[in-house]
Amino acid sequence: MGIVIGVVGPHDLVDDVAATCEEQPGVSTLRLDYDHESQAPAIVEAHAGAVEGWLFTGIVPYMLARGADVLTRPAVFVDYSGATLLSALVRLQREGHDITRLSIDTISPADVTATFVEAGLPTDRLRTLGYRPETTSKKIVSFHRRDPDHPVITCLSSVHEALRGEMHVLRLAPSEHSVRVALRQLLLTAEGQAQEDAQIALGLVEVDGDEGLLREAAALGGTLAAFRGGTHLLVTTRGPLFDATGGFTGLPMLARLAVHSSVARVGFGLGRSAAEAESLARRALARARRIGDVAAVLSLRADTDIVLESVVSMPSGEQNLSVLARRVGLSVPTLEKLLEARDAAGGEALTTREIAERLAVQQRTARRMLHRLELAGLAERTGNLTSGSSGRPLTLYRLTL
Fold it and tell me: Which domain of life does this protein belong to (predicted)?
């Protein structure tokens, strides 16, 4: 069975990137081009149901789509550092330009420096402007115009169009190697999500009557059966449950069941086998009983329990810390420290080591906390950072609570 990948980028890049992707057996592409990178979120939203993953031709459309919260499938972007940047330097050198004196946008300064150092080139006369969410093409154009004597390397077609009549500007096009690296990462991520989505989710439901239960089970793409002692068994998989709970944050069906029943308790277990899922569902229901007559809990492996509210959570800035603490199993002071760490970082991603240091805990404890927040939709992994030693890479998390 093949996988359909949506390739998003400017007109002149999409076809080449898609063709490279289609060299991979089992991969087909949906080619989605735009006139300006600002159109990327609307394109993704319009075609979300037609693909299993997204591959963006650069970081800017990817960040715009992520910032608009329209990415419901695995997504990656082609990295322009490394091989792509090196090929541009070779081209400029052949044209007679001084490649130690350039103005480069979008690629992070650290990646630019690393590429130049690996090539044995000095970096003291480079001008770099890494991409940030608030960066616009207009700001990038202004950055390059401040020093018109520096040849320009840009990653954006809009910047290239604005500057090509007044400065020497070279627009980067992703190398085939960079596309293959991004595609490999996407396929691994998509495969992992497919396996996760197929995990068994069992729900044990306690209500006074069964009115509305069959409808709720159908909405979850599942089936309903009598269990024992008046408890109902709801069988579904991780994917539909994730969608229906707003990313494991709230369970709207709980409020609907409570309209017809004085008792409405739900315990969901998520496991790799039916036996594991049932065991976790029992644990979840036991905790729901301790909470009250109307409660829902999702239990996962590694002793992780998430309390699901009767409505999908409010935007992160409006959430009550005591509610969050109860849902993810962390204390309010711990969440306050995490909020301080998030604000101190200016919304940028933090490593597990940085979180551990700020909370004065061991790294494995920080990883466990971040895993709970991620499952609750309050943190997201943004990549890995090599620690510089022989130890495991440090995972980067962006806190969204």
Answer: Bacteria
Both 208 and 231 in a single domain?
Answer: yes
CATH code at 189? 3.40.50.1860
289 and 246 in one domain? yes
Kindly report whether the global pTM for this prediction surpasses the value 0.70.
no
* Same domain as 186, residue 164: no
User: Structure tokens of 110?
Assistant: 């650290």
Name, in order, each residue with C-beta under 8 angstroms of 179's C-beta and a sequence gap of 6 or more: 17, 20, 21, 55, 78
Helices (H), 174-249: 176-197, 213-219, 238-244
Cβ density class 333-348: b for 16+ within 10 Å, e for less: eebebbeebbeeeeee
Among 310, 336, 351, residue at a domain's last position: 310
Cα torsion through 261, 292, 246, 344, rounded to 10:
160
CATH code, 340: 1.10.10.10
How much is the CA Rg of the chain, to the nearest whole Å? 25
Reduce the DSSP state of residue 104 to 3 states and report it: strand
Please provide residue 299's backbone torsions phi and psi, each rounded to the nearest 5 degrees: -110, 135
pLDDT (tens digit per residue) in 85-117: 998 999 999 999 999 999 999 998 988 998 899
If one compares 118 and 320, the residue with the highest pLDDT of the two is 118
Asked, for residue 316, whether it belongs to a domain, the answer is no
| Same domain? 55 vs 191 | yes
Whether 317 is covered by a domain: the verdict is no
DSSP-derived secondary structure letter, 38? G
Distance separating alpha carbons of residues 128 and 113, to the nearest angstrom:
9
d(CA 308, CA 254): 9
Q: Would you say 205 and 265 are in contact if contact means Cβ atoms under 8 Å apart?
A: yes
Q: State pLDDT tens for residues 356-370.
A: 888 888 887 888 788
Same domain, residue pair 210 and 302: yes
3-state DSSP: the chain helix, strand, coil percent, rounded to 5?
Answer: 45, 25, 30
